Amino acid sequence: MRTSFDIPDSLLQRARAEAAERGIPLRQLVCEALTEKLRDSARDDKRWMKSFGKLRSLYQETARIDRLIEAEFGQVEPEDWR
Fold it and tell me: Tens digit of pLDDT for each residue in 5-26?
């Protein structure tokens, strides 16, 4: 697919030089760079989910605390609040 967009001159010069050093067309360099960037972006999107998975052990602790609170509030008689 053909498309067009503006690239700063300095970046285009660097990209052309890199493509020439690697012996590949500029088009291939751009495709590789976009593919790599999008792959990294997908990993970054899921990285936060791994962190929350580490909090799984707190689920049991939260449930335990909820049971304690429920037990304590269950002992309070409505007339005590008057």
Answer: 899 999 999 999 999 999 999 9
Backbone torsions φ then ψ of 76, nearest 5 degrees = -80, 125
The domain spans of the chain are: 9-76
Residues in the chain: 82
Helix, strand or coil, per DSSP, at residue 3: coil
CA-CA distance, 70 to 66, in Å (whole number)?
6
DSSP labels for 11-76?
HHHHHHHHHHHHT--HHHHHHHHHHHHHHHHHHHHHHHHHHHHTTHHHHHHHHHHHHHHHHHHHT-
- pLDDT higher than 70, residue 37: yes
d(CA 73, CA 82): 15
pTM of the entire structure? 0.51
